[in-house]
Amino acid sequence: TAGYLREPWRPQFHFSPEIHWMNDPNGLVFHDGEYHLFYQYNPAGNTWGHMSWGHAVSRDLTHWEHLPLAIAEADGVMAFSGCCVVDHNNTSGFGLGETPPMVAVYTGHGHGRQVQNLAYSNDNGRTWTKYAGNPVLDINNPDFRDPKVFWHTPTDRWVMVVSLAREKVVVFYASEDLKHWSELSRFGPAGATQKSNWECPDLFELPIEGDGGKKRWVLEVDMGSGSVAGGSGGEYFVGDFDGTRFTATQDAKWVDFGRDFYAPVSWSDIPDSDGRRIWIGWFNNWETCLLPTSPWRSCMSVPRVLSLRKTTDPADPDGDLVMVQRPVEELQRLRVQSRPIDTTAATWPPTAVTEPGELTDMAFELETTLKPGTARSVGFRIRTGSDEFTEVGYDREPGVVYVDRRKSGNVAFHQAFAGRHEAPVRVVDGAVTIQVLVDRSAIEVFINDGEAVISDRIFPTSRRPTIEVFAGDRSAEVTGTTLHVLKSIWHA
Ligand code: FRU
Questions:
Q1: Residue 80 CA: which ligand 1 atom is closest?
Q2: Atom of ligand 1 nearest to the CA of 262
Q3: Does 105 reside within a domain?
Q4: DSSP character for 359?
Q5: What's the CATH number where 205 sits?
Q6: Residue 1 domain-assigned (yes or no)
Q7: Is the same domain home to 160 and 304?
Q8: Rounded to the nearest whole angstrom, what is the distance from the C-alpha of residue 436 to the centroid of ligand 1?
Q9: Within-domain flag for 323
């Protein structure tokens, strides 16, 4: 991993495979002190193909250890996306007695069909055995994939949500033993663009912030094209799940307003004593996925903690709930140096607020408050070089926070890559807060404490970047700015 420090676009605090192609996160599960991260992986090359499950583990959701391939393509059947559970009661019978088995439920893709398969491990996920009775669910359909399974305590059984991708429908199944499944209900087609497909569903309960432990269910689904910033992206429904049927109580909302957050799934089996619902997404977009990196392609987002927030008047019981995403706190341990930076004199043209050479590792975090006043726009240019920058700002005309990567560096590798991506935001007491995570080839902007997120890959070429601040006029202010320099997770 020492070489990772020299590769100019190798993410320094986002997970990436050592070599070759990666897409969706799979099988996220916490077991025996380890967070497992499996992922769609091509063991044979740097483009999509031969899909198998790559594997890594972490004890702190920050530093990752690469492990050997977990589940491999075989006999013309690829191992597509899926999930993992800890079978605490050994309902499957795969356990050997002492510790509960880990069971992966994944899609087998091949011979014109997509079916649901099982594999299990009795050694903390180090080796996997495919179930001899596979498939466990076959409805003779070529677009039936990406199962997510969880234990539903009130009905004392396993529940699966899986997508009929082409129909834009998700199907719910129940099982006593992970091997026999019966259909419960269906949801969809619904949501933003009825033309597109649905893949990689997830279903979980989230707490409503400050509402005395009240919870609501969230169903998340991903569309391969036609998402908010173009190309692939996710949408979610807030509603109820009664163990049989999901009912949406609000219209669909976008998961992320950038172009590069796809197929997020949440960790299973995080203990109640922790209580967090944490997910991670593929930091990429199918439309522009052939990124200019080698010998590896793709990285994951940072792990994010989820909750729900009422964004209208708290006294209004019908107010919409928004899903809030925040970087996990564990990432703060990477802050090797934190200092306030004076951004109060923001004006036009942009002025540098860091020294060239200060951010050589190019992994940092910026926390700040934008107060637009009467100015049209206010914000930052980061990863600057000669005529090169990524702009993050607030634009009062549409009322959005945006990431503009049109001049961010190498944008020419795909004609749909250059662009500006906007998230509609609320201005609370004249202010918008933003937290910006910047890595060598990625930027994640968390707005108003996670109410909206913009995730974009960037491929800057400048080696001595600075941060600049700007405002359209003197009425705008940028206050309370802190710069955190982050240590690479690949340092020993
Ligand atoms: C989503 C997806 C999944 C599928 C996997 C194949 O990105 O298309 O639906 O299981 O990728 O690699």
A1: 10
A2: 7
A3: yes
A4: T
A5: 2.115.10.20
A6: no
A7: yes
A8: 29
A9: yes
